[in-house]
Amino acid sequence: MRLTDDETRMRDGVEGDAVAAAMDLLIRYGDALGAERLVDTRNVAGTMTQPSPAKAKLFEEGGWARAYAVINLDCDREIEVPRMKVPTCQLQHGFADDANGLTLYPESSIRLQDDAESFFSERGVNILATCTPYQVGNLPVRGEHCAWMESSAVVYCNSVLGARTNCEGAASTGAAALTGKIPLWGNHLAENRHATHLIRADVDVDSFQEWGMFGYFVGEQVLEARPAVTGLLAQPDLADLKHFGAATATSGGVELFHMPGVTPEAPTLEAAFGTSPVPEPVVYGRREREAVYAALNGQGNSRDVDFVLLGCPHASLDQVAELAARLEGRHLSSSTELWVMMPRALASMALRNGYTRTITAAGGRVLTDSCPAMSKAAPPGTRVFATDSAKQAHYLPAILGIEAWFGTLAECVDAAVTGRWSGGLA
Predict the structure, then answer these.
(1) Chain segment 177-199, per-residue pLDDT in tens
(2) CA 278 – CA 258 distance, rounded (Å)
(3) Hey, what's the torsion of the CAs at 301, 365, 346, 207, to 10 degrees?
(4) DSSP three-state, residue 33
(5) Peptide bond into 264 cis (omega under 30)
(6) What are the two backbone dihedrals, phi and then psi, of residue 145, each rounded to the nearest 5 degrees?
(7) Is 173 in contact with 87 (CB distance < 8 Å)?
(8) Measured distance between the N- and C-terminal CA atoms of the chain, rounded to whole angstroms
(9) pLDDT tens readout for residues 368-404
(10) Do 347 and 356 form a contact (C-beta atoms < 8 A)?
(11) What is the pTM of this model?
(12) pLDDT of res. 228
């Protein structure tokens, strides 16, 4: 792989041992990918602070510098971690103080994470603590090269914002943060950003639930390829687009989609495919819609709901406002808990606007920083949960061994109030 003079100096240790280790990792990574060179990035979204048994052990051995060296740089040497070279943010991590005592998630992990936040914020990491960094200040521009983790964030970054990132890992983002470099391959290259498949919706996709179901179908069809989607699509809002993208990345592994007239690199269907001819469409019709709904609701038997989970990907302020309106004057069943997950920055706005007061008066909770799938914890005794998130309906049964129901926000609120699931496909 060709290195610039600046990259060679970093590799040779001119900027310190940590930067040299980071360059060594990026060179090995780029060689494995067949990348010819590195590209500059000034936008990194990774994970440094979230606790784990492995990270706790490394912390005991040598503090956060040791944990960062091994996990984020693939380096077994003792190094000092300098300030990040480029703007870097922490994505979602473990539960914080607002969830303390609500689950079996250990308080020791919360304290460990607090310590990590102090260490890494002193080194220039912005602790956004959300899977939706684009909602709280990290908003890259079209064409900007990024180094992001988190599947739902990556697909939003590429598709909705038109920035460029592959789905990176803890090591590659750790190295990018110290160098401002990432291998030039995959979604960073214009020729790799054109659509490969066409999916046409022949049923109306006009609500949050419908966008999630359509996204789940699209991901199943194209796997890790790049779909263009057309058909009976209503104008999506931010929540619809993050729900759709998250669902495509969940059932398939999509990192980039095109929606002609909506996403920035697809002003037309023809533009989405570049120089390639537009292929025959895969049709999403009534039968396919029913099959997706059945799959997402195929992990529930009991209609007695213990737990309702909203906010995956983390909820927007508009979503929380709608939830508060639906809970106004109502109260949860004594047998059911309701959590809505959102970025901490937006939680402060929800509190200021009175949404949190309404939700908590009804018996629900507004929580930040994480989610049950990320922290692998739900309310004790949870057997059956309900959600409006296709992503959580897909993952949480496997992670926690519980049953799932998937439906609309209204159905989820009704389940929280009555303790029973009564949803069904309209």
Answers:
(1) 999 999 999 999 999 999 999 99
(2) 13
(3) 30
(4) helix
(5) no
(6) -85, 125
(7) no
(8) 55
(9) 999 999 999 999 999 999 999 999 999 999 999 999 9
(10) yes
(11) 0.97
(12) 98
